[in-house]
Amino acid sequence: MYPILPDDLASDIQQFVRSDFARQYFSTHTTGFLFRRRVPVEQMMAWQKAPLTSPLLNLARPLHKDAVKIFKVIQRLMGDREREGRPNRLPPPPPLPPSSDGAQSSTLNALNASTSSLGGGALGLLEEERWLLGEGLTHGELRDEIYCQLLKQLTGNPTTESVFKGWQLLCVLLITFPPSKNFESYLRGFLQQRTAQQEGRVDVMAKYCLKRLSVVAKKGPRGKPPSVAEIETAADAAFNPSTFGEPLDAIFRLQERTYPHQKTPIVLPFLADGILALGGTKAEGIFRVPGDGDAVAELKLRIDKGYYTLAGVDDPHVLASLLKLWLRELCDPLVPDELYNECVARADDPAACVAVVERLPTINRRVVLFVVSFLQLFLDARAQAATKMTSANLALVMAPNLLRCGSESMAVVFTNAQYEQMFVHNLLLHLKCDAVDPDYVPQHGLGAVSTAAPPRTSRSRSRRMHG
């Protein structure tokens, strides 16, 4: 079960063996029938074909059975283990409460719709993957165990295809839940060591995972497991960048060929004009009332595939929720960290608030101008009467999407929230969006994109289609 490791592989994981995490959290494994010998961590953290008989980490006894089962699922997902007959459908664990705008809800409708072309074997594996993700969400103690088992199977793995599928699974884990702070530093080191490994395109996935690790460490776990469609999108995201959760410049580069003259990410006018087309200026609670979570997630996936169409969407709240989600999930905040404190400190000074916008990087500034000018359409007296959303209400719900407090202190976050709202409120009332950037004047109501752009095709290899 635990073979002798080559010297180069053994040295590759010495960093982990010497870490405080390994000494404190690893369980003791033994081998042999008559003379029980302790298995070194170096061997425990190397790929193996055989199943585990106990967890890698010290876990509560009731979780041991789940940990062993999780390892078998990881082996099947990576193609290292045959499936044991046709598995029963694995239901997700009970969902945690969703976020206020429903953005964390995943889609069972999209799940069923998006898998109609999958074979039973592939669908069964994806269902097992959802079960694994659900276990990590339900039992926080299992998260490090799951990451640890996956890194083990990526260390010294002799099969290129298995390694590729393992990295795809890691991409999915990193949109679902973070490792603990104790394990995060080792995972980061593991990823950094592999950013130069070009074989099997590991370098591309390692660099992508490094970015996702930073994001998920700040955001924390999802409310419930991603849908099958979301899993498939996340698995290939290193090669097919998302419109969501990426740096602004990367999103801009992604659309340059299709929309060469667009000065803001195309998703903004698509969603904004869609909100207007669906009567958003007359919708009570617009930007406050969440859209249906399933519909939000389904439209998000559609956009990520390059289809900018409102077909089947008739609720402006869905688009408003997705607009907030896009802003909130940007890899870097719209207002850079170096300007955040000034926003808070000068929030009561309208001129200072406007001056901050003028100093933003070009793409950031144009996004702010677009969003603020769009929100200003809702300040019309008739719109306010219909939506019951005043300028103060809009500032309250939009501030967390435009400004991002980097402090880990809840007291600081809570205190700063009122100043963030004041800053956004001053922009809504005083920012003249057509007079800030001589090369860009935001326009609205020109019509949402009605024809779908050519969908982006995956450049990665076909994913786990073997039963």
From TrEMBL:
GO CC annotation terms, alphabetical: cytoplasm; cytoskeleton
Domain Rho-GAP, first and last residues per copy: 246-435
Biased composition (Pro residues): 89-98
UniProt record, GO biological process: signal transduction
A Pfam cross-reference name: RhoGAP
Domain of life: Eukaryota
MF (Gene Ontology): GTPase activator activity
SUPFAM superfamilies membership: GTPase activation domain, GAP
Domain MyTH4: 47-235
Comp. bias (Basic residues): 458-467
Coiled coil: none
Ranges for region Disordered: 81-107, 447-467
Protein name: Rho-GAP domain-containing protein
